[in-house]
Amino acid sequence: MSDRSLPVVSGDSAARPLYAVRPASLQALLQQLPPAQAAWLRAAGFTGGAQELLLLPDPEGIAGAVAGLGDDRTPFAFGDLAGRLPADGAWRIEPGDFRPEDATLGFLLGAYRYGELKAAARPAATLAISRQKRALAEAEAIWMARDLINRPANLLGPNELADAITGLGRRYGAAPIRFEGADLVAAYPSIATVGAGSARPPVMAGFSWRGSRAADDAPLIALCGKGVCFDSGGLDLKPSESMLRMKKDMGGAAILLAVARVLMEADLPIRLILRVGCVENAVSGRAMRPLDVLRSRRGLTVEIGNTDAEGRLVLADLLAEASDQNPALLIDCATLTGAARTALGPDLPALFSNDDGWSERLLAAGRDRADPMWRLPLWDGYDRWLESQVADVSNTGSGKMAGAVVAALFLRRFITSKSPWVHLDVYAWNDTTRPGRPEGGEAPLVRSVSAAIEANVDVM
Questions:
Q1: What pTM, to 2 d.p., does this model score?
Q2: 312 catalytic, yes or no?
């Protein structure tokens, strides 16, 4: 897997200054600037409001720029600068009323464009930085995840996604995990069943990594991602409108791969295992049928109430294996239900958990990092909806409401240990372009999940 380079240079003293100010700090900046530039700002009516940008002239051209932040305390206050500033030369963000890492991260998230299939793309402005290792690691991880989600499904099938996963693991010295063919059928029968309808065979891919300071009893973090490279719905075929963005159905896998990358880059004293079910849910004579019954890795039989509820089948085998290892923390992530989007919209992932402590740690990290999520309940009263007349459990159940809750309850059936478990139901897409969030694939929760894990290694 190859990375694209971020538009950064290290400590370039020749970089033009970029002053980022809020309305309350504008007067102090005006007193600091040369009189001609201060007069220019006043004449232009610059107020320091959000997304304002004004270039500062000098006799030889452009001396610098001033950006308004308004009251926005998130990295996205800096998210449109890379596309609006002149790209000839680097820019240096001067200190101000903001966290330097937020400025760097927001600038770089806004610089992202998916252009690998275009003959030419407009270059973004370059940022001169120093001592911003964490912001760079997060930006690189999110760029990687966005690239994977944006890549067309004909170019990113199960095998290509598996290669990207094991390739990243090798970069950090991780031991690869890969099952396919008869080995996959034996070890992960639910994943094999979901992928049976595609001409592109399913793969279970992942890696096992240990930090350089991690002892044998270091906390084990288990990450399980849904890697459905394209979801047609199977024989319960999706309408064309609903199928249009289904190349993003591997978004959960991309997000957790990015989380793993940030954790490994930080070299935390943990043990880490990432597992991803890489499949395509396609239509053919080999595809699973409604009311088929499959046997999962856990041994539970599952009746297929709907072939479009395939993501939970992929995760079931992964969670069964991961929970048997009694990890200190078990997280799965998936673009799982439209019900979660109906309840919370595209920007607010749903969090389900059997552990109040980890729920609050993750929610707190989301608030601090402007990378939020919202907790929904594992409501026991709906568990009976999953009952089947012919199998141990139905993958959809009999209820017509609370689809995100029912999906989470289904996943819980495959977890036997008392490990803290977190299920994240995400959208992984920006429907429109906003500062720092260009239209297309998105990787929420990378920053909040990795920050929560890093801050709590000592309490696991």
A1: 0.97
A2: yes
